[in-house]
Structure prediction request, 488 residues.
Amino acid sequence: MLSKASYTLLALLALLALPVVSAERVLGAYIFARHGDRTAKVLGKTRLTDLGYREVYLTGSSYHGMYITNSSASHIQGINAEIVSQSQISASAPVDTVLQNSAVGFLQGLYPPAGSSATQTLRNGSTVEAPLDGYQLIPVSVVSTGTGSEDNSWLQDTSNCQKAIVSSNDYFASALYDSMLNSTAAFYQSLAPLLNRTFTASQMSFKNAYTIFDYLNVASIHNASSSSFPSSDLLTSEVYYQLLALANSHEYNLAYNTSEPVRAIAGSLLAGEVLTALNNTIATNGKSKLTVQFGAYATFLSYFGLAQLPAVSVNFTGIPDYASSMAWELVTNSTDSFPASSDISVRFLFHNGTLTGSAQPTVYPLYGQPTLVLPWSDFVTYTAKIAVTSQAQWCNVCGNTGGVCINSSSSTASTSTSFSASAGSSKSGISRAVAGVIGAMVTLAVILGLETLFLLVGGFRISKRAVLSSQTRDSKDESKDESKDESK
Prediction:
Protein backbone atom coordinates (compact mmCIF):
# COMPACT_ATOMS: atom_id res chain seq x y z
CA MET A 1 0.00 0.00 0.00
CA LEU A 2 1.36 3.43 -1.01
CA SER A 3 2.25 5.93 1.67
CA LYS A 4 0.79 9.45 1.82
CA ALA A 5 4.13 10.79 0.54
CA SER A 6 3.97 8.43 -2.44
CA TYR A 7 0.46 9.62 -3.35
CA THR A 8 1.67 13.23 -3.21
CA LEU A 9 4.60 12.42 -5.48
CA LEU A 10 2.35 10.66 -8.00
CA ALA A 11 -0.03 13.61 -8.03
CA LEU A 12 2.82 16.02 -8.74
CA LEU A 13 4.10 13.81 -11.56
CA ALA A 14 0.60 13.67 -13.04
CA LEU A 15 0.40 17.47 -13.02
CA LEU A 16 3.76 17.73 -14.72
CA ALA A 17 2.53 15.36 -17.42
CA LEU A 18 -0.43 17.63 -18.30
CA PRO A 19 -0.03 19.75 -21.44
CA VAL A 20 0.90 23.37 -20.78
CA VAL A 21 -1.87 25.76 -21.80
CA SER A 22 -0.25 28.87 -23.23
CA ALA A 23 -1.68 32.30 -22.63
CA GLU A 24 -3.04 34.17 -25.61
CA ARG A 25 -0.82 36.92 -26.98
CA VAL A 26 -1.59 39.94 -29.16
CA LEU A 27 0.98 40.24 -31.95
CA GLY A 28 -0.30 43.41 -33.55
CA ALA A 29 -3.38 45.56 -34.08
CA TYR A 30 -5.07 48.03 -36.42
CA ILE A 31 -7.29 50.78 -34.95
CA PHE A 32 -9.76 52.83 -36.98
CA ALA A 33 -11.28 55.73 -35.05
CA ARG A 34 -13.76 58.55 -35.49
CA HIS A 35 -13.04 62.14 -34.50
CA GLY A 36 -14.29 63.72 -31.30
CA ASP A 37 -16.99 66.34 -30.82
CA ARG A 38 -16.86 69.09 -33.45
CA THR A 39 -18.80 72.08 -34.70
CA ALA A 40 -21.79 71.55 -37.02
CA LYS A 41 -21.10 70.64 -40.64
CA VAL A 42 -23.76 72.93 -42.06
CA LEU A 43 -21.97 75.97 -40.65
CA GLY A 44 -18.77 75.18 -42.56
CA LYS A 45 -15.11 75.25 -41.51
CA THR A 46 -15.67 72.56 -38.91
CA ARG A 47 -13.25 72.37 -36.02
CA LEU A 48 -12.55 69.99 -33.17
CA THR A 49 -13.91 71.34 -29.88
CA ASP A 50 -12.19 71.10 -26.51
CA LEU A 51 -14.73 68.41 -25.63
CA GLY A 52 -13.82 66.51 -28.78
CA TYR A 53 -10.12 66.85 -28.01
CA ARG A 54 -10.74 65.36 -24.59
CA GLU A 55 -12.82 62.50 -26.02
CA VAL A 56 -10.13 61.31 -28.44
CA TYR A 57 -7.43 61.78 -25.80
CA LEU A 58 -9.36 59.59 -23.35
CA THR A 59 -9.92 56.95 -26.02
CA GLY A 60 -6.21 56.97 -26.85
CA SER A 61 -5.42 56.63 -23.14
CA SER A 62 -7.69 53.58 -22.93
CA TYR A 63 -5.88 51.95 -25.84
CA HIS A 64 -2.62 52.74 -24.04
CA GLY A 65 -3.95 50.68 -21.14
CA MET A 66 -4.98 47.88 -23.51
CA TYR A 67 -2.10 47.61 -25.94
CA ILE A 68 0.88 49.53 -24.56
CA THR A 69 0.96 48.87 -20.79
CA ASN A 70 3.13 45.84 -19.99
CA SER A 71 0.76 44.46 -17.37
CA SER A 72 -2.24 44.38 -19.72
CA ALA A 73 -3.49 41.00 -20.92
CA SER A 74 -3.85 42.60 -24.37
CA HIS A 75 -0.35 44.12 -24.40
CA ILE A 76 1.04 43.95 -27.92
CA GLN A 77 4.04 41.66 -27.79
CA GLY A 78 7.29 43.62 -27.87
CA ILE A 79 5.80 47.08 -28.21
CA ASN A 80 7.60 49.79 -26.26
CA ALA A 81 5.64 50.52 -23.11
CA GLU A 82 6.93 53.98 -22.21
CA ILE A 83 8.96 55.61 -24.97
CA VAL A 84 7.42 55.27 -28.42
CA SER A 85 9.41 53.53 -31.14
CA GLN A 86 8.35 55.10 -34.43
CA SER A 87 9.27 51.95 -36.34
CA GLN A 88 6.57 50.05 -34.42
CA ILE A 89 3.64 52.38 -35.00
CA SER A 90 2.13 54.24 -37.95
CA ALA A 91 -0.67 56.78 -37.88
CA SER A 92 -2.65 58.53 -40.58
CA ALA A 93 -5.59 60.83 -41.24
CA PRO A 94 -7.13 62.45 -44.33
CA VAL A 95 -6.50 66.04 -45.34
CA ASP A 96 -9.10 67.28 -42.89
CA THR A 97 -8.54 69.56 -39.90
CA VAL A 98 -10.95 67.77 -37.56
CA LEU A 99 -9.58 64.31 -38.35
CA GLN A 100 -5.92 65.34 -38.23
CA ASN A 101 -6.32 67.09 -34.89
CA SER A 102 -8.25 64.11 -33.57
CA ALA A 103 -5.38 61.82 -34.55
CA VAL A 104 -2.91 64.05 -32.69
CA GLY A 105 -5.10 64.08 -29.57
CA PHE A 106 -5.55 60.29 -29.68
CA LEU A 107 -1.79 59.73 -29.99
CA GLN A 108 -1.13 62.00 -27.02
CA GLY A 109 -3.23 59.60 -24.95
CA LEU A 110 -1.74 56.49 -26.56
CA TYR A 111 1.81 57.57 -25.67
CA PRO A 112 1.58 60.29 -22.99
CA PRO A 113 4.50 62.53 -21.99
CA ALA A 114 7.31 60.42 -20.58
CA GLY A 115 8.75 62.94 -18.14
CA SER A 116 12.41 62.53 -17.32
CA SER A 117 12.52 59.26 -19.26
CA ALA A 118 12.38 61.24 -22.49
CA THR A 119 16.00 62.38 -22.46
CA GLN A 120 18.96 62.17 -24.77
CA THR A 121 22.66 62.21 -23.88
CA LEU A 122 24.87 64.16 -26.25
CA ARG A 123 28.50 63.49 -27.15
CA ASN A 124 29.75 66.11 -24.71
CA GLY A 125 27.99 64.28 -21.90
CA SER A 126 25.17 66.78 -21.42
CA THR A 127 21.59 65.57 -21.18
CA VAL A 128 18.70 67.09 -23.11
CA GLU A 129 15.15 66.60 -21.90
CA ALA A 130 12.21 66.70 -24.28
CA PRO A 131 9.99 69.78 -23.74
CA LEU A 132 6.46 69.74 -22.33
CA ASP A 133 7.33 67.13 -19.69
CA GLY A 134 8.71 64.66 -22.19
CA TYR A 135 6.05 65.16 -24.87
CA GLN A 136 6.34 62.40 -27.47
CA LEU A 137 6.20 63.25 -31.16
CA ILE A 138 4.38 60.68 -33.29
CA PRO A 139 4.20 61.42 -37.02
CA VAL A 140 0.79 61.55 -38.71
CA SER A 141 0.88 60.83 -42.43
CA VAL A 142 -1.78 62.01 -44.84
CA VAL A 143 -4.12 59.89 -46.90
CA SER A 144 -6.08 61.30 -49.82
CA THR A 145 -9.08 59.08 -49.12
CA GLY A 146 -11.67 61.08 -47.20
CA THR A 147 -10.18 64.51 -47.84
CA GLY A 148 -12.44 67.21 -46.42
CA SER A 149 -14.83 64.70 -44.86
CA GLU A 150 -15.92 66.90 -41.98
CA ASP A 151 -16.63 69.94 -44.15
CA ASN A 152 -18.89 67.95 -46.44
CA SER A 153 -22.34 66.55 -45.77
CA TRP A 154 -22.32 64.31 -48.83
CA LEU A 155 -20.75 60.94 -48.04
CA GLN A 156 -19.55 60.09 -51.53
CA ASP A 157 -18.24 63.56 -52.36
CA THR A 158 -14.88 62.66 -50.84
CA SER A 159 -14.65 59.24 -52.52
CA ASN A 160 -14.64 60.46 -56.16
CA CYS A 161 -15.69 56.93 -57.11
CA GLN A 162 -18.07 57.47 -60.03
CA LYS A 163 -20.04 54.24 -59.64
CA ALA A 164 -20.35 54.77 -55.88
CA ILE A 165 -21.73 58.25 -56.45
CA VAL A 166 -24.27 56.92 -58.95
CA SER A 167 -25.21 54.11 -56.57
CA SER A 168 -25.76 56.45 -53.64
CA ASN A 169 -27.79 58.79 -55.82
CA ASP A 170 -29.97 55.82 -56.75
CA TYR A 171 -31.17 55.82 -53.15
CA PHE A 172 -32.78 59.21 -53.72
CA ALA A 173 -34.85 57.64 -56.52
CA SER A 174 -35.90 54.59 -54.48
CA ALA A 175 -39.35 53.78 -53.14
CA LEU A 176 -37.88 53.58 -49.63
CA TYR A 177 -36.54 57.11 -49.84
CA ASP A 178 -39.80 58.49 -51.28
CA SER A 179 -41.76 56.82 -48.49
CA MET A 180 -39.52 58.30 -45.80
CA LEU A 181 -39.53 61.73 -47.45
CA ASN A 182 -43.32 61.90 -47.57
CA SER A 183 -44.08 60.32 -44.20
CA THR A 184 -41.71 62.65 -42.31
CA ALA A 185 -42.52 65.91 -44.10
CA ALA A 186 -44.79 67.26 -41.35
CA PHE A 187 -42.31 66.22 -38.64
CA TYR A 188 -39.45 68.20 -40.15
CA GLN A 189 -41.62 71.24 -40.85
CA SER A 190 -42.70 71.24 -37.21
CA LEU A 191 -39.08 71.90 -36.27
CA ALA A 192 -38.94 75.17 -38.22
CA PRO A 193 -38.50 77.32 -35.08
CA LEU A 194 -35.31 75.35 -34.35
CA LEU A 195 -34.03 75.39 -37.91
CA ASN A 196 -35.14 78.56 -39.65
CA ARG A 197 -31.94 80.46 -38.81
CA THR A 198 -29.91 78.02 -40.88
CA PHE A 199 -32.23 76.04 -43.18
CA THR A 200 -34.80 77.21 -45.70
CA ALA A 201 -38.28 75.70 -45.61
CA SER A 202 -37.47 73.49 -48.62
CA GLN A 203 -34.37 72.15 -46.86
CA MET A 204 -36.33 71.03 -43.80
CA SER A 205 -36.97 67.48 -44.95
CA PHE A 206 -35.70 63.91 -44.77
CA LYS A 207 -33.41 64.76 -47.70
CA ASN A 208 -31.19 66.58 -45.18
CA ALA A 209 -31.79 64.14 -42.31
CA TYR A 210 -28.17 63.94 -41.20
CA THR A 211 -27.34 67.62 -41.63
CA ILE A 212 -30.39 68.58 -39.56
CA PHE A 213 -29.62 66.03 -36.84
CA ASP A 214 -25.97 67.10 -36.74
CA TYR A 215 -26.90 70.76 -36.41
CA LEU A 216 -29.36 70.16 -33.56
CA ASN A 217 -27.10 67.64 -31.85
CA VAL A 218 -24.24 70.15 -31.74
CA ALA A 219 -26.61 72.86 -30.51
CA SER A 220 -27.94 70.60 -27.76
CA ILE A 221 -24.37 70.06 -26.52
CA HIS A 222 -22.96 73.58 -26.80
CA ASN A 223 -25.70 76.22 -26.99
CA ALA A 224 -26.68 77.03 -23.42
CA SER A 225 -28.70 80.22 -23.91
CA SER A 226 -32.14 80.61 -25.45
CA SER A 227 -30.81 83.36 -27.71
CA SER A 228 -28.29 81.01 -29.33
CA PHE A 229 -30.69 78.07 -29.36
CA PRO A 230 -34.22 79.46 -29.74
CA SER A 231 -37.21 77.16 -29.18
CA SER A 232 -34.88 74.55 -27.67
CA ASP A 233 -37.81 73.21 -25.65
CA LEU A 234 -39.06 71.63 -28.89
CA LEU A 235 -36.06 69.30 -28.89
CA THR A 236 -37.45 66.77 -26.44
CA SER A 237 -35.86 63.36 -25.91
CA GLU A 238 -38.49 61.80 -28.17
CA VAL A 239 -37.81 64.30 -30.95
CA TYR A 240 -34.05 63.91 -30.58
CA TYR A 241 -34.17 60.12 -30.91
CA GLN A 242 -36.54 60.34 -33.85
CA LEU A 243 -34.10 62.68 -35.58
CA LEU A 244 -31.26 60.25 -34.81
CA ALA A 245 -33.20 57.24 -36.11
CA LEU A 246 -34.02 59.06 -39.35
CA ALA A 247 -30.41 60.19 -39.78
CA ASN A 248 -29.24 56.62 -39.18
CA SER A 249 -31.55 55.29 -41.89
CA HIS A 250 -30.56 58.03 -44.32
CA GLU A 251 -26.81 57.62 -43.88
CA TYR A 252 -26.68 53.83 -43.76
CA ASN A 253 -28.59 53.59 -47.02
CA LEU A 254 -26.21 56.09 -48.63
CA ALA A 255 -23.16 54.20 -47.36
CA TYR A 256 -24.15 50.59 -48.05
CA ASN A 257 -26.48 48.56 -50.24
CA THR A 258 -26.50 44.77 -50.31
CA SER A 259 -27.06 44.51 -54.06
CA GLU A 260 -24.58 47.31 -54.95
CA PRO A 261 -21.31 46.74 -53.04
CA VAL A 262 -19.60 49.63 -54.84
CA ARG A 263 -21.69 52.00 -52.72
CA ALA A 264 -19.52 50.90 -49.78
CA ILE A 265 -16.25 51.86 -51.49
CA ALA A 266 -14.99 53.55 -48.30
CA GLY A 267 -15.38 50.30 -46.38
CA SER A 268 -13.67 48.35 -49.16
CA LEU A 269 -10.66 50.66 -49.04
CA LEU A 270 -10.49 50.29 -45.25
CA ALA A 271 -10.69 46.51 -45.53
CA GLY A 272 -7.77 46.56 -47.94
CA GLU A 273 -5.70 48.77 -45.67
CA VAL A 274 -6.39 46.56 -42.64
CA LEU A 275 -5.44 43.44 -44.59
CA THR A 276 -2.24 45.03 -45.86
CA ALA A 277 -1.18 46.31 -42.43
CA LEU A 278 -1.86 43.07 -40.56
CA ASN A 279 -0.15 41.09 -43.30
CA ASN A 280 2.88 43.36 -42.94
CA THR A 281 3.00 42.58 -39.21
CA ILE A 282 3.18 38.88 -40.02
CA ALA A 283 5.63 39.37 -42.88
CA THR A 284 8.04 41.31 -40.66
CA ASN A 285 7.74 38.88 -37.74
CA GLY A 286 6.08 41.57 -35.67
CA LYS A 287 8.38 44.52 -36.34
CA SER A 288 5.35 46.54 -37.42
CA LYS A 289 3.02 46.38 -34.43
CA LEU A 290 0.29 49.01 -34.43
CA THR A 291 -1.51 51.08 -37.06
CA VAL A 292 -3.89 53.92 -36.18
CA GLN A 293 -6.12 55.57 -38.77
CA PHE A 294 -8.77 58.26 -38.37
CA GLY A 295 -11.76 58.59 -40.65
CA ALA A 296 -15.39 59.63 -41.01
CA TYR A 297 -18.49 57.80 -39.83
CA ALA A 298 -19.39 56.83 -43.41
CA THR A 299 -16.41 54.47 -43.49
CA PHE A 300 -17.68 52.76 -40.35
CA LEU A 301 -21.13 52.26 -41.88
CA SER A 302 -19.72 50.97 -45.17
CA TYR A 303 -17.47 48.48 -43.41
CA PHE A 304 -20.26 47.38 -41.06
CA GLY A 305 -22.40 46.44 -44.05
CA LEU A 306 -19.62 44.67 -45.95
CA ALA A 307 -18.56 42.69 -42.86
CA GLN A 308 -22.19 41.59 -42.25
CA LEU A 309 -22.22 43.15 -38.79
CA PRO A 310 -25.87 44.34 -38.96
CA ALA A 311 -26.84 40.66 -38.80
CA VAL A 312 -25.16 40.59 -35.37
CA SER A 313 -26.86 43.73 -34.08
CA VAL A 314 -29.13 46.33 -35.64
CA ASN A 315 -26.96 48.91 -33.85
CA PHE A 316 -24.45 48.48 -36.68
CA THR A 317 -26.85 50.31 -38.99
CA GLY A 318 -26.51 53.44 -36.86
CA ILE A 319 -24.05 56.32 -37.00
CA PRO A 320 -21.23 55.69 -34.48
CA ASP A 321 -20.84 58.33 -31.79
CA TYR A 322 -17.93 60.75 -31.56
CA ALA A 323 -14.60 59.05 -30.67
CA SER A 324 -15.92 55.59 -31.59
CA SER A 325 -13.32 53.05 -32.59
CA MET A 326 -12.88 49.58 -33.99
CA ALA A 327 -9.83 47.36 -33.87
CA TRP A 328 -8.54 44.22 -35.53
CA GLU A 329 -6.08 42.16 -33.43
CA LEU A 330 -3.63 39.48 -34.50
CA VAL A 331 -3.71 36.88 -31.70
CA THR A 332 -2.04 33.54 -31.04
CA ASN A 333 -1.76 30.79 -28.43
CA SER A 334 1.52 29.55 -29.84
CA THR A 335 4.61 29.55 -27.64
CA ASP A 336 6.90 30.43 -30.56
CA SER A 337 8.48 33.87 -30.34
CA PHE A 338 6.65 34.67 -33.55
CA PRO A 339 4.38 31.91 -34.81
CA ALA A 340 3.60 30.58 -38.26
CA SER A 341 0.54 32.15 -39.88
CA SER A 342 -1.38 28.91 -39.33
CA ASP A 343 -1.16 29.64 -35.59
CA ILE A 344 -2.41 33.23 -35.92
CA SER A 345 -6.02 34.43 -35.76
CA VAL A 346 -7.86 37.75 -36.07
CA ARG A 347 -10.30 39.24 -33.59
CA PHE A 348 -12.55 42.26 -34.28
CA LEU A 349 -13.59 44.74 -31.59
CA PHE A 350 -15.82 47.82 -31.59
CA HIS A 351 -16.75 50.47 -29.05
CA ASN A 352 -19.41 53.10 -29.63
CA GLY A 353 -18.27 56.45 -28.27
CA THR A 354 -15.45 57.50 -25.95
CA LEU A 355 -13.51 54.77 -24.14
CA THR A 356 -13.08 55.73 -20.51
CA GLY A 357 -12.23 54.10 -17.20
CA SER A 358 -12.59 50.34 -17.19
CA ALA A 359 -14.67 50.23 -20.38
CA GLN A 360 -13.43 47.84 -23.05
CA PRO A 361 -14.31 47.40 -26.73
CA THR A 362 -16.68 44.51 -27.40
CA VAL A 363 -15.68 41.54 -29.55
CA TYR A 364 -17.98 40.78 -32.51
CA PRO A 365 -17.95 38.04 -35.18
CA LEU A 366 -17.10 39.07 -38.74
CA TYR A 367 -18.53 37.94 -42.06
CA GLY A 368 -21.45 36.01 -40.61
CA GLN A 369 -19.15 33.44 -39.01
CA PRO A 370 -20.14 31.74 -35.73
CA THR A 371 -16.78 32.28 -34.02
CA LEU A 372 -15.37 35.44 -32.44
CA VAL A 373 -11.84 34.63 -33.60
CA LEU A 374 -11.08 33.87 -37.25
CA PRO A 375 -7.99 31.91 -38.35
CA TRP A 376 -5.73 34.17 -40.40
CA SER A 377 -6.37 32.13 -43.56
CA ASP A 378 -10.14 32.58 -43.19
CA PHE A 379 -9.78 36.27 -42.46
CA VAL A 380 -7.72 36.71 -45.63
CA THR A 381 -10.25 34.77 -47.70
CA TYR A 382 -13.29 36.70 -46.48
CA THR A 383 -11.62 40.09 -46.48
CA ALA A 384 -10.27 39.60 -50.01
CA LYS A 385 -13.86 39.37 -51.23
CA ILE A 386 -14.71 42.91 -50.05
CA ALA A 387 -11.35 44.69 -50.14
CA VAL A 388 -9.96 47.17 -52.66
CA THR A 389 -6.20 47.15 -52.39
CA SER A 390 -4.75 48.95 -55.38
CA GLN A 391 -5.00 51.96 -57.67
CA ALA A 392 -5.88 49.83 -60.68
CA GLN A 393 -8.51 47.86 -58.79
CA TRP A 394 -10.08 51.09 -57.53
CA CYS A 395 -10.26 52.50 -61.06
CA ASN A 396 -11.80 49.27 -62.33
CA VAL A 397 -14.38 48.99 -59.54
CA CYS A 398 -15.34 52.67 -59.70
CA GLY A 399 -15.40 52.90 -63.48
CA ASN A 400 -13.17 55.98 -63.41
CA THR A 401 -11.18 56.64 -66.58
CA GLY A 402 -9.87 60.18 -66.06
CA GLY A 403 -7.11 61.61 -63.91
CA VAL A 404 -4.84 58.98 -62.41
CA CYS A 405 -7.01 56.26 -63.95
CA ILE A 406 -6.04 57.19 -67.52
CA ASN A 407 -3.11 54.79 -67.54
CA SER A 408 -4.67 52.17 -65.27
CA SER A 409 -5.41 48.83 -66.84
CA SER A 410 -9.01 47.66 -66.85
CA SER A 411 -7.66 44.46 -65.42
CA THR A 412 -6.03 44.45 -62.00
CA ALA A 413 -4.16 41.22 -62.52
CA SER A 414 -1.00 42.46 -64.22
CA THR A 415 1.02 43.15 -61.08
CA SER A 416 0.23 41.85 -57.65
CA THR A 417 1.10 41.65 -54.03
CA SER A 418 -0.06 38.47 -52.34
CA PHE A 419 -1.39 37.76 -48.89
CA SER A 420 -0.57 34.33 -47.52
CA ALA A 421 -3.47 32.43 -46.05
CA SER A 422 -1.42 29.42 -45.00
CA ALA A 423 1.78 28.60 -43.21
CA GLY A 424 4.67 28.03 -45.52
CA SER A 425 8.03 26.49 -44.83
CA SER A 426 9.27 29.58 -43.07
CA LYS A 427 8.54 30.17 -39.42
CA SER A 428 6.26 33.10 -40.06
CA GLY A 429 4.44 31.36 -42.87
CA ILE A 430 5.05 34.34 -45.16
CA SER A 431 8.36 35.15 -46.80
CA ARG A 432 9.56 38.50 -48.16
CA ALA A 433 10.07 38.81 -51.91
CA VAL A 434 11.27 41.60 -54.17
CA ALA A 435 7.74 42.62 -55.12
CA GLY A 436 6.34 42.43 -51.62
CA VAL A 437 4.73 39.73 -49.55
CA ILE A 438 4.38 36.37 -51.29
CA GLY A 439 1.64 33.88 -50.48
CA ALA A 440 0.03 30.85 -52.04
CA MET A 441 -3.62 30.24 -51.23
CA VAL A 442 -5.29 33.59 -51.69
CA THR A 443 -3.91 36.10 -54.21
CA LEU A 444 -5.19 39.65 -54.38
CA ALA A 445 -4.52 41.51 -57.59
CA VAL A 446 -2.94 44.77 -56.47
CA ILE A 447 -0.38 47.35 -57.50
CA LEU A 448 2.99 47.32 -55.78
CA GLY A 449 3.84 49.95 -53.25
CA LEU A 450 1.03 49.38 -50.74
CA GLU A 451 3.50 49.45 -47.92
CA THR A 452 3.76 53.20 -48.43
CA LEU A 453 0.27 53.29 -46.91
CA PHE A 454 1.88 53.71 -43.55
CA LEU A 455 4.96 55.84 -44.34
CA LEU A 456 5.83 58.08 -41.45
CA VAL A 457 7.29 61.55 -41.51
CA GLY A 458 9.12 63.54 -38.86
CA GLY A 459 7.29 65.20 -35.98
CA PHE A 460 3.76 66.28 -36.72
CA ARG A 461 4.70 67.55 -40.15
CA ILE A 462 2.37 66.40 -42.89
CA SER A 463 3.56 64.79 -46.09
CA LYS A 464 1.57 63.48 -49.02
CA ARG A 465 1.12 59.74 -48.96
CA ALA A 466 0.85 57.68 -52.12
CA VAL A 467 -2.27 55.79 -51.18
CA LEU A 468 -4.91 54.82 -53.71
CA SER A 469 -4.72 58.38 -54.83
CA SER A 470 -7.56 57.88 -57.25
CA GLN A 471 -9.26 60.76 -55.50
CA THR A 472 -7.91 63.31 -57.98
CA ARG A 473 -8.88 66.93 -58.29
CA ASP A 474 -10.28 66.33 -61.78
CA SER A 475 -12.59 63.51 -60.79
CA LYS A 476 -13.49 65.26 -57.55
CA ASP A 477 -14.73 68.31 -59.41
CA GLU A 478 -16.77 66.11 -61.74
CA SER A 479 -18.23 64.21 -58.78
CA LYS A 480 -19.30 67.36 -57.00
CA ASP A 481 -21.04 68.73 -60.08
CA GLU A 482 -23.00 65.52 -60.59
CA SER A 483 -24.06 65.03 -56.99
CA LYS A 484 -24.38 68.56 -55.66
CA ASP A 485 -28.08 68.97 -56.40
CA GLU A 486 -28.93 65.67 -54.77
CA SER A 487 -26.84 66.11 -51.66
CA LYS A 488 -27.11 69.62 -50.45
